[in-house]
């Protein structure tokens, strides 16, 4: 990561034609629909019919009312980094290639979690088994929480008790120079955390955070990752369509 928030990468980035020919896509995004889970302090998603040929108009169109952090989404650094901070960047100021390139997934087992936290040992274990996490990688944490995703009123299990990384682990990711991190939880820091240490460690160093990812348990250790945010002027984040491409 350079000082101006652009990518400095050691990762492999494949041509688009090779991706589509030699790799198959896995959608890592939850469907956006009414009654989907939302963070307790965030507004819910609503979809309203605006015009339709069912009512005499020429076409169908819906109006969407959604929070910037609806569903599978990415946090911009300015979500937490205030005015004057060197990483105070809104989503329209973020280099979109930060969410393009090699991805790795670290699968978290029940035994890895202590008091709701998983630590640097999961990263070190991954690197022993699969090689070093590289500069510019997108690092995802599969906690299994995506299996709890459900529409209201059945979403309570998804909205309480989710795990998150220790501050030590977040700082280790900063040292490795990754471009983005994400998990299958509604918040990257563990439920009920005080101070949001992982958010401040990562966003404070220009590393993007993705939340509410899906299907992470289907991924091999490494893959090609693509997740594009909307170009929202002054946006603190954006919904994304996150996709992993794995070898056929």
Automatic annotation (TrEMBL):
UniProt protein name = Cyclase family protein
One GO term of the biological process aspect: L-tryptophan catabolic process to kynurenine
GO molecular function terms attached to this record: arylformamidase activity
Coiled-coil segments on the chain, per record: none
Q: Which organism is this protein's natural source?
A: Mycetocola reblochoni
Q: Which domain of life is it from?
A: Bacteria
The residues forming the signal peptide are none
InterPro entries named among the record's database cross-references: KFase/CYL (IPR007325), KFase_sf (IPR037175)
Q: Where are the transmembrane segments?
A: none
Question: Which PANTHER family does this UniProt record tie to the protein?
Answer: CYCLASE-LIKE PROTEIN 2
Lineage of the species this protein comes from: Bacteria, Bacillati, Actinomycetota, Actinomycetes, Micrococcales
An example of a Pfam family matching this protein is: Cyclase
């Amino acid at each position: 990561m350079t000082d101006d928030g652009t990518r400095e990468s050691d990762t492999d980035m494949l041509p688009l034609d090779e991706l589509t020919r030699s790799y198959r896509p896995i959608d890592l995004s939850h469907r956006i629909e009414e009654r989907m889970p939302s963070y307790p302090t965030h507004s819910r998603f609503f979809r309203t019919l605006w015009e339709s040929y069912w009512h005499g108009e020429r076409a169908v169109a819906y109006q969407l009312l959604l929070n910037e952090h609806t569903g599978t989404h990415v946090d911009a650094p300015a979500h937490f980094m205030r005015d004057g901070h060197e990483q105070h960047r809104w989503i329209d100021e973020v280099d979109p290639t930060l969410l393009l390139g090699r991805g790795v997934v670290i699968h978290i087992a029940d035994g890895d979690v202590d008091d709701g936290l998983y630590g640097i040992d999961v990263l070190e274990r991954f690197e022993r088994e699969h090689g070093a996490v590289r500069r510019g990688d997108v690092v995802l944490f599969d906690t299994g929480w995506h299996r709890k995703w459900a529409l209201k009123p059945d979403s309570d299990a998804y909205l309480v008790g989710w795990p998150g990384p220790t501050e030590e682990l977040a700082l280790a990711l900063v040292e490795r120079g990754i471009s983005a991190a994400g998990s299958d939880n509604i918040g990257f820091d563990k439920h009920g955390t005080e101070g949001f240490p992982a958010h401040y460690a990562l966003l404070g160093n220009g590393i993007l955070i993705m939340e509410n990812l899906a299907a992470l348990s289907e991924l091999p250790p490494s893959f090609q990752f693509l997740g594009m945010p909307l170009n929202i002027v002054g946006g603190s984040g954006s919904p994304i369509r996150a996709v992993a491409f794995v070898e056929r």
